[in-house]
Structure prediction request, 769 residues.
Amino acid sequence: MSKKSFFQKYEWSAYAYLFPALIIILTFHVLPIFYAMVISVHSGGMTDYFKNFVGLSNFGYVLTNKHFWYSMWNTVYYVLGTVPVQIFLSLFIAILLNQKIKGLETYRVIYFLPVITSVNAISIVWKYIYQKYGVLNSFIGFLTGMPGPDWLMDTTWAMPAIIIMSIWKGLGYNVIIFLAGLQNVPPSLYDAAKIDGAGRWKTFWNVTWPMISPTTFFVMIMSTISSFQVFAQVYMMTGGGPQESTTVVIYYLYQLAYVEHKMGRASALAFILFLIIFAITYLQKKFTAKRVHYS
Amino acid sequence: MVLNKNDNNCRGNKKSFNAYLAIALLLVTMMFSGCFCGPKKKMPHYTADGKLKIIFWHSMAGKLGEILNSMVDEFNKNNKDNIFVKTEFIGEYATLNQKIAAAVFAEIPPHIAQVFETWTLKLKNEEAIVALDKYMDSAEVGIDKNDIVPALLRNVTIDGKVYSMPFNKSIPALYYNKRLFAAAGLDPEKPPVTWDEFIEYGKKLTMLERKGFLFNDYINFTEYESQNGAGSFPPHGSKYTVIWGNAFISDPWSFENYIFQNGGRILDETGKKAMINSPEALEAADYMVNKLKKHRFALRTSGREHQNEFVAERVAMIEGTIVSKVFMQSKLRFPFGMANIPYNKINTSVLSGTNVAIFAYFDEEEILAAWKFIKWFTDTEQTARWGIETTYMPVRKSAYETEAVKQAVIKDPNMKVALTMLENIDFEPLVAPWFECRAILGVATEALVLSNKSPKEILDAAAAEMNEVLAAEE
Prediction:
């Protein structure tokens, strides 16, 4: 065996290709994680985050704070409100869009438009829609003759209002992912099912559903993670109110960091949220992974 | 066998090499970021024609920004000290606050920025801003401190030192629709002055409209309710439209106004004890809540919705900052009046708006240049002009006596609210954890309107929570 030179020995070009991405990931993802970890065990002011070493007391503060538990509950409410509905709705729409109908491209564009529109712009428009005398309540009044709720200013309705908007906004993305999954199902399987005399429902349950299970799994994991991090809608539409009914974890974190300037506590909260999301993702993977079929 | 072994070795090397590479990259990145974050001496910047550049971060949007920029342009053209002030619009106040926090942390703040009193306190504690007394009292560039409106001077003084100059200060005003006043049989030139009058007027102004005719009054409106159930109102899109006497926001700002007007306080003198559950505050809470719950002439809104409803003539009276005039008046298709907001015991209101501070980390030359600009902007002539054009309060006593201000009030009587110097002005407590306290007050204020608990219960709990926050601050 001939001795390779140092440069021949390793795939330098591979590292060269990875370098730009690595720099970005290290600077904006990895480094801040360590940085936040250091901040989370300190307390300090606006100019010096590291004034005093306080050990784990920031974690203690967050975990014993009732506002944290409110925000946790609100976040769970939001996640349970958006993720399942979004999965089923987007799968349903994807199946409809997977047929040979006229104007298919137009429909796909319509469903994808909210995804590429800025969430801030959408939030402002929906804020008007949800007003006491807004479009939605005019519609409800016209249909039922009853006044609709004061959506964003009512502790009962504010979170559902944000959930409805978020489902509408995020739907298109999941529809596209499901469409890709659906189009990867080999037509031969459908032909075989047809020959065996399977109806629509049986075909879906025995062919489509198992074949797109990796897609469903992906959508579930990704939308759970992103739903736990919901912020912009809340910031724009309700500011966490009324009476903290829409204060989600990230909104509370934002308040700790940028309103109260308690970076240590905010970083501790970020870590707690990270652990929670990590645990939930792990559980989701553990309990659903065996049902996922990779062809 | 031998070959295999070699292979394994090779793989092992590669693995550890990868680890080394990752660590090396991490170190390189840390070094890079270290270079960017480290303390550095800032050099003064000059424009192409050799003028000293002063950066000014502000939050003056739209029309206000235009007025500010035109005044700054004038300063840049006419000043003899070779100073060039560059304004940078940062966004709303909350964004400005975040950006200042980040800039101070990175030690790259602007020379001048708009700041709220609580930020001033925090920035002062971090030694990020400079005390202005030295410049105010100096023979060459000083100003007459006694000419600053006393309440405004008190507002910017911390431990006997001045850390910021009053810049765009505002108070609330009552806006009312004269056309609807006449339709309800009220004198359009006599706005309500007291809380009792406000309630009386509010009831009269709550009307039902059908096809452009205002033919129902509050009595008939309550009749509608008795037929259709308490709390019901004709839905939008039905044959009736409700015109409300008042639209209000249940936010800390409104509540604070009412507390002060009723002779109450928010914190006691030591700044360590919340007073929001005092008898005066409870009365103020009743006044706010009863507009909605007992007298039922008010629409609860959020954000700037109440202004939109006022513009659309769906609401007869609103309370808002005097500066809203600039944004609303071009849209108003009806005669409107402005007055001080109705009070109960004391004719007072809460001061809002920001001051300007000069940041440390700069050479003496730059700080002096920044001060010269602030001095120019707040001198009698400029502050009068700023007041007339924006409706912000002029900050100098002498400005209220100028011919320009007198003419402006004659030309537009609604300017009287902004351009009359006030006897009584109150402001939010100057304590470092005020933002936390204000958040607690905000939740409590919403609870007053939304929850079924008694105001006493709500405010007792909020006061206890505020006391805890105040005690925790060292």
Summary: Chain B has 19 helices and 14 strands. Chain B has a mean pLDDT of 85.
